[in-house]
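User: Show me an example of a complex going from sequences to structure tokens.

Assistant: Sure. Here are the input components:
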Amino acid sequence: MAKVLDNPRPTLKERAAKLGGQVQGSQVWNSIFRPGSIFRKGYTDSPRNRSYVIMNSVLYHLHPVKVKRHAVKVSYTLCLGGLSFFLFILLTVTGIFLMFFYRPTGANAWQDIQTLQTSVTFGLLIRNMHRWGAHLMVLSVFLHMARVFYHGAYKPPREFNWVIGVVLLTLTLLLSFTGYLLPWDQLALWAVTVGTNMMGYSPVIGSVRASRTHASFRHRHLYGNSLLARPQRRRNLWTSVSEGAHND
Amino acid sequence: MTEIPEHLLKRAQAAREKAAAESDAPADAGAGDSRIPDHLLERSKAARASGDGAVAVADKATAVVASAPAGSVPVGAGPGGHTQRLLTVVKSGSIQETKAAPVDKVHTWPHLLAVEFVAALACTAFLFVFSWVVNAPLLHAADFNKTPNPSKAPWYFLGLQELLTMFHPMIAGVTLPGMGLVALILAPYVDRNTSNKPEDRKWMTSMMTLFLMFWAVLVIIGSFFRGPGFNFTFPWRDGIFFEL
């Protein structure tokens, strides 16, 4: 009994070790670091763990050698995940094509789109595919999320897949949103203005805003595409300053 | 103790009767009528003749086989001539490790990849035809001095813009969507239910449906039921104020 009382409180080191063990044993930790990861509790450099690294990789998860027969049915997944990825590829390809004819500056952007549509072979078609494809991708990613949820496919051991999926959904929305700005027409400008006005209140992004007056959106940093934003911001800063001078 | 199943009792009874019938019949099976094939028996005999160390084994095997069909009741046998008794019946699963039923699987190639390829082709075809027929909008060049009425966000953010009509921007634009995202991310860690069956997941299914419907309804209202000044309109009365 006396021996126990000799050391009544655990030292800082012991407490840190205990906390580390608890973190490593938690569901969140184990869902992020799958079997084979060196960060898992009780990891050993064994052939089994080396095999797990490959078998648990994301590519192998997406397409293992064999899949359950019911999962192959189109009515089960509606191919939504695959289509989302395919649309991403399609948007990359058509987007690179569009980049050849487009200068992301306030002075040239709209005129470049106009020229692309009227003077470039298949320019209008490719632009249409890029735009409709982007809308379709937002829709398919959203529906894919719903499908995964209703099948309970986010449950252990796939919790972290779901988290990555939510991040990808957010990224899809943001990329689509920034792409919305690029034609630099009235629709783009004012849609993005409304959007950035909403985001202007978020803690990090919104801190750059100078004031909450109506004209303040003009020198907001987040115009979507930074290439377009920089020259545009310079111009806007000038207009708002001059406008402020007029108001005074 | 576990009760002995009916069918095992019946089987034991049948075996007992059979053994009794066999013991009644004169046993004419001699040492030659063993289950060892003739050529093997010959070989072992030859080996025995050559006087080798393998003799003992062959000898013993013959002896054992010879003693089996002898017909007489062995020493220490139970009622009916049985040398073993059924002590208890252990159900499988209580001491055995039973594996789950094998899962019906097919190869990813070609079964899944073919389906995905067709889906990608169909998607491309749809997008191609749609893009051929419907042109993407390109309005007048951006003009800071002409604010269109109404000004609308892209359709997927119209739910948020709809919320803006009800709450302060801090709540509608940041807090509510932020909470929604955090709730989505936490869903797999909050949901302790491990079942995948729809009948076991009524709570989560209804929560998610509410969540999705909430945003869908807001987006639809923001898209089609909001006109100039972002005031409420009916699309069939005032037209649609919506651009993709």
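The lines above are the inputs; the final block is the predicted structure for all two components together. Chain A has three domains: 8-22+32-55, 71-184, 204-248.
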